[in-house]
Amino acid sequence: MKKTLRIILVLLPIFLMITSLTHADKKISEETIKKSDEWYNKGASLIESGKYQDAIGALNKAIELNPRFAAAYTYRGVANYFKQKYDKAIEDYDKAIELNPKDALTYINRGNAYGKKQQYDKAIEDYNKAIELNPKDEKTYHNRGNVYSLKQQYDKAIADYNISIKLNPGDYKVYNSRGLAYRAKQQYDKAIEDFNRAVELNPNDAWVYFHKARVYSLTNKINQACRMFNQSIENGFTNLNHFKSHKDFDNIRDSSCYKKIMSGK
Fold it and tell me: Under 8 Å CB-to-CB from 104, ≥6 apart: which residues?
């Protein structure tokens, strides 16, 4: 990551609903279309079960039977994404968009894959297109905001987070992301406000406490930093190397509470 900012990406595939919406060639029989849909639904279910290679096999069958089945290409792209085969995922999304250029979800998914490849400008282009097609999807703004943060364009990121929160004020992850952007801008009070809101919505995410501890350390609030440090560990944060190596914790390393926590006592 650049500088000391840690971005927790929301770059996750957006699933299509399992449905029999098929873009079929008129020469394909209804029976063939039905079989293609069955393989498609099987592939979708296998993805949700985490069986990505099996899902690809099923979706290959769906595409063989109906080569113009846009959703099957999208789902195969999702399976390839989860297998971290981002180039193959993008190829599938490209084909899906060629067949159905009005599907916002496919642009989101392709943007996610570009994000994983650190091709941030291409990711933003896809999120822009998705927003053009569906301006009410809060996740698209969240994802685009995360990419802006990775590009250190924090004002643009915050603007996107604001829209995402307006559309869905109950998503704690957006508050966490906006808090990170405020932390990068050294607007620490605003960062803490967002982390507090994230905790209200989900008191069990260890990373939110980790980020709160960072900001309290940066502002020399030693006791609060150590308390959030402990909260993070209590909620499952096990890799203490993050605390040992992160520069944001330099201010508390000589404190007795930090030494006690690191000693495991």
Answer: 129, 130, 131, 133, 134, 137, 140
